Amino acid sequence: MMKLSCFWIFLYLHTENVQVDAILTICSLIGGSAGILLAILLFDRKAVKDNMMSRVFIACVFVIEVIILLMVKGHHADHITLAFWEFFAKYKILLIYLAVINFIAFAAYAVDKVNAAEHRSRIRIVTLLGLAFVGGSVGSLLAMYLLRHKTRKNYFTVGVPLIMVMQVVVIFYAMNAGW
């Protein structure tokens, strides 16, 4: 694992950002997202606009790969179901959590939009994407397009829908985990 982490540091130091992002994307898709995520957490924790899209992509791919691994290893119920409403009826607290976090995400995007218009201090990109990642992707996406905010940044226009797909996969797995 250490050799892999050193390899990613070497890539960051000796190639252009576009080349690194392309290499990281390919490597994460073929199963290397855990090593990339570890290298980022250990050696390159500073999130900036230039690396935000690759970080969102790698985090989402990592979560999806873990769920696929769990499914392949047999950690699922005997029958697969798509009954989302039954699941949320059974776990009302999850539905309440999602409603609250989506409201908070929408409000954060709204506050950031107002602050941008009035040239005041802005909410950090990591915070906005983090709210989407922890369950507020629907509120984030609604705010982006209803308020016309952050719609020119690929780490939002591609990242938030990708986060939403990841969350659907997580909910699908939770419904079918067989706990």
Structure description:
There is one protein chain. The chain is mostly helical and 179 residues long. 78% of the residues lie in helices and 0% in strands. It is built from 8 helices and no strands. Helix 2 (17-43) crosses helix 3 (49-72), helix 3 runs parallel beside helix 8 (159-175) and helix 6 (125-146) crosses helix 8 (159-175). The longest helix has 27 residues, at 17-43. The protein is flat and about 55 Å long. The two termini are 31 Å apart.
How is this fold's topology laid out?
Layout: H1 2-14, H2 17-43, H3 49-72, H4 84-90, H5 92-117, H6 125-146, H7 154-157, H8 159-175
Percentage of β-strand residues: under 5%
Low-confidence stretches: 1-5
Provide the residue-averaged pLDDT. Answer: 82
In DSSP terms (H or I, runs of 4 or more residues), the helix count works out at: 8
Largest sheet: none
* Rg from Cα: 18 Å
Helix coverage percent of residues? over 70%
Number of strands: 0
Structural class: mainly alpha
Order of helices and strands: HHHHHHHH
What is the CA–CA distance across the termini?
A: 31 Å
Question: What is the molecular shape?
Answer: flat
